[in-house]
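User: Assemble these into one structure.

Assistant: Restating your components, then the assembled model:
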Amino acid sequence: MSTPSEASAEQRAPVTLTPVLTARWGEKDSFTRRVYERNGGYKALRQALQRTPESIVEAVKDSGLRGRGGAGFPTGMKWSFVPKDIPKPTYLVVNADESEPGTCKDIPLMMADPHVLVEGVIISAYAIGAHTAFIYVRGEVLHVIRRLQAAVAEAYEAGYLGTNILGSGYDLELVVHAGAGAYICGEETALLDSLEGRRGQPRLKPPFPAVAGLYASPTVINNVETIASVPSIVSNGSGWFRSMGSEKSPGFGIFSLSGHVTNPGQYEAPLGITLNELLDMAGGIRAGHRLKFWTPGGSSTPMLTEEHADLPLDFESMAGAGTMLGTRALQIFDDTTCVVRATLRWVEFYKHESCGKCTPCREGFWWQVQILDRLEKGQGTEADLDKLLDLSDNIGGRSFCALADGGIAPVTSSIQHFRDEYIAHFEHGGCPFDPAASALFTVERKEEAGVNA
Amino acid sequence: MSETNGGQVSEESGTALDAKVRAEMEQIVARYPESRSALLPMLHLVQSYEGYVTPAGIEMCADVLGLTEAEVAAVATFYTMYKRRPVGDYHVGVCTNTLCAIMGGDAIWSELSEHLGVGHDEATEDGKISLERVECNAACDYAPVVTVNWEFVDNQTPESARELVDKLRAGEDVSSTRGPKLCTWKQAERVIAGFSDGLAGQGAQAGPASLAGLRLAEQEGWTAPEGGQPALGGADEGTGGESK
């Protein structure tokens, strides 16, 4: 292994990968109950059912686990907001609607190891006192849906789901529910509306879902990776979890490297690893090129550049750099990439996925697409950049949900870091980049030839 | 906007929706604490019979759930997976969101669109293939990505994608990269509606990119720390740690 980059190496021990959630993925048939149990699966459930629900909530609180779906809210605290002693049932809903551009961790997790999610669901539902739970999985992932359906069926057969689970007296029904293609349903209140059989439009908060969520009942909504982390915390303890990561961002997480990197893929590491450390592990930026810009956690997190590549990838450091850790979806673009083209395409996505409920988001992205399109063709002016920023000011923070805030991230951050490149477009009378140079196929063939030689 | 509203349902001819479908819809309803939650899977079920969301399908959903047809149509028109006209037996999605587009998805799209002579959300005349520009499908480490009936076909090039659609059109068997032999659109929709096809065990458990970090960790001898908590339930090994 090459050494991690100099800047961070002096201050701390070299960071290595810590496979926990990804540990079983390499084994044939890892998605079956047989293989999962052979590797210790469902032991955490047996342990949990011997403890009080309150002690599970405490253990998750003590671990410092923060939501892995992007926002990073402390999971144990979220659970503790569920009101006690009210007549309405409590629900647990797993957000498996992974669709933030660049994010690709939950899908392989559910494909390779759906039982760890099912086990996490049972323990978490037990902890919050829910007797019905849902996995809301996006509809466009057929084989993942098959694997989830099969895992849930196997868990029922084994008595891990249903009535009187393992003789504990605890009952739980778990439903796999497929969506129908709408990014907005990853937003938790839109997800609830969708799960209620409606158009997926966000709700105004408060009330928060913990108080009035699904069917206006107390509801906890957690990301797949969050829930999948629970069995290991129950088994190994919060101290073990905290032995990885940092004080405020403890534990491990899956980092997803994609784009112009030699070996894209899933790398599970303690929070706080840096992009440069991950790039070293992934064979670096594709041969002959340099890092130009990257997102720390999906397209809704403001982009960063080469100068940020030694920052710890944790919640605080990313916030300090004016961006967010998000989903650890590291989309990596090299020097062949036109940032205006990238931004236009992202904003087209937000325009397409805006649910239409709030005017600033619905209209704002529509106008931004017009302006960016003109800029990319070299027909814009410098005043267009100010107009884009002005529009962004009027979109962000002025809509019900975070889609609006996320959608302006590529616009404002690309203008902040690459204003000159925007200007070059209209000075040059068009895009100065060749899109063919960014594509992977021609280069890949050359590289393959080199490797095989 | 919507051709499915109001009194236009009577134009429907020769519908495949019969008492059996209605009974399956009731089965879906039984999964949920409140009946309306069944609507999304019910619309998928309609597509599994009709190929798309037909006026008759809307009518049946509304009838089963006690909703108006306008209420059902409002939901059906919100979500991109519900189609309002027939798609091909093989519905091919090309990811043209930023990352895939730049890695080559735009070139793949142009190639396929030209080769098949169809645009976004259009089907070939023989009804075999339809094309859609899809948004990020959570397989970015396999970019550029193509999907067929919502199965992954990873790491595509314009040539490989053209070969893919040619094979599908010729009726040859094609497997998805990480899953089973590609099924038809209607078969896929039935699974999405919650009716298993028994194929979960087929295909790899994970593709190579999903395993990139794990393989490196194995090679380097890197593991997560050992679990330190005394077991309460008789666990004799750290369940969260290493797999071997």
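The beta strands of chain A are 91-96, 132-137, 173-178, 219-223, 252-259, 265-270, 291-295, 304-305, 329-334.
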